[in-house]
Amino acid sequence: MNSIKMFSKRSSWKSDPNRLMAQLERLRSDGMEIIHLIETNPTRCGLIYDTEGICRAVSKNNILQYRPNPKGDPECRRAVQSYYETFGKHVSADQMFLTSSTSEAYSFLFKLLCDPGDQILVPKPSYPLFDVLATLDDVTLASYPLVYCQKDAEWRIDLEALYDAIGHRCKGIVIVSPNNPTGSYVKAEEIERIEAYCERFGLCLIIDEVFLDFDAVDCDPSSSMTCVGRSRVPTFVLSGLSKICALPQMKLGWIVTSGPDGLMQEMNDRLEWISDAYLSVSASAQAAAPWLLSERGGIQDQLKARIERNHRALSQSGLTDSKAFLYGREGGWYALLGVHSSTSDEAICCRLLEEQHVMVHPGYFYDIEAPDPVLVISLICAADQFDEGIQRMLRCLRSG
Ligand SMILES: Cc1ncc(COP(=O)(O)O)c(C=O)c1O
Q1: Does residue 127 have its Cβ closer than 6 Å to ligand 1?
Q2: What is the fold of 3-47+297-399?
Q3: How far is the CA of 103 from the centre of ligand 1 (A)?
């Protein structure tokens, strides 16, 4: 895995020892206005939040009493249960653990499943934070490839390569559905094969569904289903308010567990023990969650309309004149842009930043390996910034 320690939600880029981030820092300190075509912080994208409703939800009277519960507040867990009922899935609030974020949920699961040096398999390309989270828990990561099929404009898990990547100390396989940044959902036949491997080698499945709700309009609804409640192998589904309600600052995530009865009792007991050591979720986040989840439609509709609008604008922006092409996407918040060029993705990003003051991510930040350089663009940016950024980007690509 690429050793670059960067990811979009870190509060500072300053310690990142790479060229692009150093350049961004220099331009910023020169007072240059940068168009962030990779803005992933929804609270900076001009969305209209129900400010009064949110403030009312976090300041309920019941936050004044401390009622520790290792699984999290029961009412909050029932609200998460109702969220899954909208997908037609019943999960017991008893098999649910609230955490302060999805990142913390990963950390709890690494503690649960791994001794130092044990192995977890993660997709490649994917979310760059895995590297950091695994290092912090002394877990060794190995990756399995997602391969882009140009003909079908679709990403698929290379199941043979995944099988070969399972080491003798492997304890679990992570699936991100839809994946960041490829936007691809895990397919029914893929998850079945992966479960068969898990059964064979005694592994657990961790399924990160933080972007689940953001399926593309033309995505087959049957492929964007949640994996909660699967029972063949120990399964841990992760999500949280960070993306579902576009409120990363609320710091509320969760783990929903399921699997063979004989194994899950002990897994749940141990997970409860880990959660009990931290009790990390704040009373106000838990008090607010039932209202935030029930009202998520307001912010999700805006985000979905924004994503579709920006994706359409990008695909109609004259990409071929700029030797660029869009990768197929099924969901999520990102678009991948391939560029027919003999230079590297980082060189293109540096030039774009220097000449046009537009910031996008090079594909290598996410371990994308492709014949042509790949740029990663966020589709949640405000439309005017997005359009201006795309025009500048295409100008740069055309001239180089
Ligand atoms: C795939 C994926 N999982 C988890 C997270 C982190 O979510 P949280 O803010 O709940 O830690 C992100 C954040 O971008 C992500 O892209």
Answers
A1: yes
A2: Aspartate Aminotransferase, domain 1 (3.90.1150)
A3: 6
